């Protein structure tokens, strides 16, 4: 970008960036180009187009292929309203024959609902191909804003021994993954490996699949906040989870297993040896609570297509049933009901929107430290996947 | 704000419910029945029922939650539900009504027709509650007085007579809307009546300002950030300005406003709450009583305004006709149910002092009015100028003082003004104020829940931090009394004395300028 900031043309260029256009820049000049951008924006502010640059974290995204990169770009643009950040997106094409690295800068700007100044986040996109992919961390590191937390969002199945992954991990505080994107047969090994690596490096591991459960966990906990529900919590003896199925895809039990892992970790349930019977289309196994056995069943529900959990029911000795189920005709709503043998049951309807990826990411960016509940739930879930090995 | 008590609760509750460990929300209210007195009124329709519906949609209300609405006009349950449906469709925070969620919510809405002074109505209410509770198995009750204030005592007494104020197998609480009294004597009388049938920990006096996130953020901002507390005192602060400006008029509530005026409508409650939050000492813990103790201490330390000082300490105003946002608006005296010669004030500016170590000698200027140019509520802390004018300005003027402003409405945020050198190598050093601005809406782009949602939930959870305690209300009224008593002087101001759409009477400018200060331009 030229130095003549007074020229109208240059100002127009900056305005184009602030309105969302990406602009290609020389890799070594990324930082200075961004400085020019904000200088021009400040000048513009004096002329009545107030702009504020804001940054509360570094978000490094990794994607393979332009489609995924485009998707990441959209998600970050939505997230930036709540978490203004410096985002650095690596678009990798490791299979390319020749090595190459290109950079572009862009901005995500939002005008607050009440009006006033535009608040802008900056984004740097690095297109790396061939051998350059393995070395791109050398470009990323100096671009991180010092003193702010670094989140690495690996939008793919991580390859644990991948050089770039390991290098980036070295300089981040949080690793974000989505186990729903993992191939079911590799999920257990990947999650075990990720848990080990992140623990060794004192990095917080966050799984968007766990965030999908936040509302479910809240609803489950509510059953047992007060009597008369509370007395049944230690006497649960059956858990049934139905998973909405995606046509033509193998059912993904990870989210359901994380939910059961969470119950098991909180309630002290352990896997009964040899009780695991995984089948291709369903899973059932036995756990042991202080009060006796707990039968667990996860089944794909062929009648409900879509993503994620469809229903959960918890049964307690004595016949109490606590259930949460998405409505068949309106999956954005759920029915939450309790049937108690002594009476005093209820049924209510609550909103159960499937959270968007931006919402899930945003929730994870809120977190500032280790989530012990997740780590314990994950440890259990992985054991269920492994069949207790 | 996470209170200490909530923290303690968390630990207790966690023991109670192991699933709550590590969760963001620590508990939901126990099943309860909310009885709204005045269930066809404006507040119920615009605020209460929409807030309840939004809470239920988010899954924040317990299973086994029911509402009984009580009012005078005859109506069936289904008529009541359909009225409430229209109200929710119009006023809910969530844009479109979800039919299945509404149906489930509406199934637990009931209507009880009665005159508030009819003992039979309370017998009918008791039997409705019994029926509902036999289904839910829970006996927790929350009463909400959303009625004209003259019924508060009556309803409390009748509830007492009907034996509806206490149960051994569940909690009973009562929420009292503002205005809480119209002077010290009536507030004290209302307190006595309420406390003859309820205990203080059952009474939740509402000030919906306290349910706003930013108001709670004032405390977090002051006490969680180490850099502000050391300069939050007379040594560094020149004065404080609190503004509660409204552009609307009295919106058809002439009958009420004639008796209230801005001093009872805004100053006695909202403005003094903001004052006490801005000026209070750090509480020992965030337990409701520890926070409220500190707030009361501030109010107790406010120097009464003696009648001979009234002229120097207050300016009253009333709006005449004018133009707001291009619209012609009528004068106050032309409003419905307002006397043609009314001397009710729609604007008040006052200067007060807090006689304690922290604030001795620091004036607090408060102004509030109707039909001002815009709606804005803010607390501005104006810092002292540096003792030495080190940097001469080109035109000989002083550098602007540092100002920290906490905006509560319309968009919540905090901003800090400081001087900075204008870049350039010219011989004269140019210094210009720069604003560092933080808006909650943009930094945490989440829709902040309505204040009533927060307050309803807190009262169901038994957390009284954001409600006003008996002594707090009475101390606030005692101070207000000193002002209103001096107003009974024979010489009322010549009203109207400001044009609608302006920042109040000229006297208000002269008033602050006499002290060598200026109102902030907002
Ligand atoms: N509206 C607001 O935005 C707002 C804001 C802050 C505080 N407040 C306070 O909230 C309270 C209620 O205000 P509002 O504006 O909702 O009042 P409102 O619209 O006048 O409603 C009054 C309600 O009380 C009922 N009622 C009146 N006299 C009755 C009697 N003798 N027996 C039985 N029912 C009777 C009315 O029932 P019928 O319709 O059947 O006659 C109606 O439901 C007031 O204290 C007000 O100061 C209101």
What structural keywords apply?
heterodimer, A: 389 residues, alpha/beta, Dihydrodipicolinate Reductase, domain 2, 2 domains, 9-stranded mixed beta sheet, 11 helices, 31% strand, disordered N terminus, B: 522 residues, Rossmann fold, 6-stranded parallel beta sheet, 15 helices, 17 strands, binds NADP nicotinamide-adenine-dinucleotide phosphate
Structure described in brief:
The complex is a heterodimer of chains A (389) and B (522). With 389 residues, chain A is of the alpha/beta class.
Name given to the CATH architecture of the largest domain in chain B: 2-Layer Sandwich
Spatial strand sequence of the major β-sheet of chain B: 8-11-12-7-13-14-15-16
Q: What share of the residues of chain B lie within helices?
A: 25-40%
Largest sheet of chain B: 8 strands, mixed
CATH 4th-level superfamily of the largest domain in chain B: Dihydrodipicolinate Reductase, domain 2
Distance between the termini of chain B: 28 Å
Strand content of chain B: 15-25%
Backbone CA Rg of chain B:
25 Å
Largest interface: A-B, 54 and 45 residues
Overall SS class of chain B: alpha/beta
Please give the oligomerization state of what you see: heterodimer
Task: Count up the domains of chain B.
Answer: 2
Radius of gyration of chain A: 24 Å
The CATH topology name of the largest domain in chain B reads: Dihydrodipicolinate Reductase, domain 2
Distance between the termini of chain A: 59 Å
Number of separate structural domains of chain A: 2
Instruction: Please work out how many helical segments of chain B DSSP would assign.
Output: 15
